[in-house]
Design a protein that fits this description.
Number of strands: 16
Protein name: Reductase
Strand order of the largest sheet: 11-12-13-16-15-14
Largest sheet: 6 strands, antiparallel, barrel
CATH topology of the largest domain: Rossmann fold
CATH architecture of the largest domain: 3-Layer(aba) Sandwich
Distance between the termini: 93 Å
Domain Response regulatory: 20-137
GO molecular function: cyclic-di-GMP binding
Order of helices and strands: EHEHEHEHEHEHEHEEHEEEEEEEH
Number of domains: 3
GO biological process, one term: phosphorelay signal transduction system
Low-confidence stretches: 10-15, 208-213
Shape: globular
Pfam family, one: PilZ
Mean pLDDT: 83
Helix content: 25-40%
Strand content: 25-35%
Length: 371
């Protein structure tokens, strides 16, 4: 006799592991506050006292996010942040510096040079950590943008990195473009095929006489068919100030308002708020550069391109806070780069600056350029 089958329970789906947050720094009041801020969030947090300990820790358990207290970079002894970045890999978890309003600018400059991609200001707030964790899980990714608003992908065929060709790649990244670098002209097609995305523009530099000059291999590549190109003369030095307008004309973009050619290194904690129906929700980051036209901010959770934002720029050297307003000219929220070079963050074009404030910014730029 057959019995009636009992209630069939659906098989449980795969359970996603909670993101792992690795906190690097000695136990302190700010670290205890960090633990309290992480407690209500769905994550697994662990703490190690030093960068050396973190280097060993990541060999056994790979974190999703690494928070480093600024004092780990302050004394200049022991293992630097660059070694940890190399251990984590180019596509590894992002590094966030935990700073205080009085954190010296020199420490922020070290962090910027060694791979810091975001900054959290104390006192730490739960909504700031939640935004970063949501971005890691894909829940905080911005909505799809219209084709014209999407960042352009540019292939620099024959450029080994951002500083090649007079720093043309670094300027293009500061304009918000995404860059594929190829050390050789002939390898440019292979980089495009490996990445799997059609570039908007190919910039190549002709080699010396007798060297292979063709970017395109004998077998045509569909991803390169019909892509506009710009060829630079290898016999003449590259002058980015003259090449940049030609590139933007080919891309159909206007990018002169940020005045990227005039930017100088400028590392300060920054808070920014995007106006909304419930008022501005302030988030933090760290500036990497300043120009008379705008501010360049590193953060995993930037405001959307086109948004109006308020800025609070902390000046550790002067002990002052500079308030400004601007419009986000470009933004790159956290997402796997997949071999493409671009910073996480945003470029903010200053808005409504009066002559006194513009003069103050120019003085700051001159002070940074000529210490």
């Amino acid at each position: 006799m057959m019995t009636a089958p009992g209630r069939v329970r659906p098989s449980p789906g795969p359970v996603e592991a909670a993101p792992r947050v690795l906190c690097v720094g000695a136990t302190s009041e700010s670290w205890l506050a960090l633990s309290r801020a992480l407690r209500p969030l769905r994550c697994e947090a662990s703490q190690v006292p030093s960068l050396e300990s973190a280097f060993l820790e990541v060999r056994h358990a790979r974190p999703s996010l690494v928070l480093v207290h600024w004092r780990q970079l302050a004394d200049g002894t022991g293992m630097g942040l660059r070694a940890l970045r190399l251990r984590l890999g180019a596509e590894g978890p992002p590094l966030i510096l935990v700073a205080e309003p009085e954190t010296p600018a020199e420490v922020l400059e070290v962090g910027d040079a060694e791979g810091v991609e975001d900054c959290l200001l104390t006192p730490l707030r739960t909504h700031e950590l939640r935004a970063r964790l949501a971005m890691l899980e894909g829940a905080g990714a911005p909505s799809a943008r219209a084709p014209r608003e999407r960042p352009r992908l540019v292939l620099l065929a024959g450029a080994s990195g951002p500083l090649a060709w007079g720093g043309l790649g670094a300027l293009l990244e500061a304009c918000g473009h995404r860059i594929l670098y190829s050390a050789t002209v002939g390898g440019g097609a292979a980089r495009v095929v490996s990445h799997g995305e059609r570039p908007h523009l190919v910039v190549a530099r002709e080699g010396p006489p007798g060297a292979p000059r063709s970017l395109f291999p004998p077998r045509p590549q569909p991803l390169l068919a019909g892509v506009p190109s710009l060829t630079l003369d290898a016999e003449a030095p590259v002058r980015p100030s003259t090449v940049l307008p030609r590139i933007h004309a080919l891309l159909g973009r206007e990018a002169s308002s940020l005045r990227v050619e005039e930017r100088v290194r400028f590392c300060c904690p920054v808070s920014f708020g995007e106006s909304g129906p419930r008022g501005a929700e302030w988030r933090s980051g760290v500036s990497s550069a300043l120009s008379p036209g705008g501010l360049f901010v590193r953060t995993l959770v930037p405001a959307k391109a086109g948004a109006a934002v308020g800025l609070h720029i902390l000046l550790p050297t002067l002990g002052e806070r500079l308030e400004a307003h601007g419009v986000v000219a470009w933004a790159h929220a956290y997402a796997p780069r997949g071999g493409v070079s671009h910073p996480y963050g945003m470029g903010v074009r200053f808005l409504g600056m009066g002559p006194p404030r513009l003069m103050q910014l120019r003085q700051l730029c001159q002070a940074e350029a000529h210490p």
